[in-house]
Amino acid sequence: MNLLQLVNQTRVECGVSGPTLASAQNLTGESARILAWVQQAWIDVQTSKEDWLFLREPFEFNTVAQQWEYTPANAGLTNFGNWKRDSFRASSVNNLYRDEQLMNYMDWTTYRNLYLYANMRNTYARPVVVSITPNKDLAFGSTPDQAYTIVGEYYTQPVNLSADTDIPGIPDRFQMIIVYRAMMYYAGYESAPEVLSRGDFEYRRLYSRMEIDQLPTIVSGPPSD
What we know:
Blueprint (H helix, E strand, L loop, with lengths): L2 H12 L14 H19 L8 E7 L6 E2 L9 E4 L5 E4 L8 E2 L1 E2 L2 H8 L8 E2 L3 E4 L5 E4 L1 E2 L3 E9 L19 H15 L2 H22 L11
Parallel strand pairs: 6-8, 7-10
Antiparallel strand pairs: 1-11, 2-9, 3-11, 4-5, 4-11, 8-9
């Protein structure tokens, strides 16, 4: 469903009277409130988990010699939300990834005490470690001695629905979760407990199914001795 269809479906589920809306633009009154609730519901869904699969995207960029810190913009990202910490790989530029190696993630405090300390500040080599600074920049250790191709994944920031034809980036079978969440906002405004009860029940039911489908699979390790 696109934004217009989501708004109209929410009106139906909430029992709102009146004809089907032909557009979700320039609305007023109750229709404008429902539009705002649908838009907020989609933001709520996206921000409820930081590692939804539907927010996960690849990236690739080249480092610069003797530069250890890189912003999301340096990686060519305009919709950055967060990094996927276990996804980083490094290889020599123009080498067709033949020498590509996985990079280990290191927490920022440990990285700072190891690579931004004493002689290590001016030690240049192939980076084998990646960390994330407090402002979410990437930090490589050692500082690259030349250009390297960095490949990884990141999570996008929440995207709003604004045009009538905008479609939320989740599988079709889960899109009603936005309607059910919007019903809860409507019920709170209109003091409609029956709408709240149904919206809450259906939201929780569909949310649990989406967690199974759209969250990383948890893999158990070997049993301990």
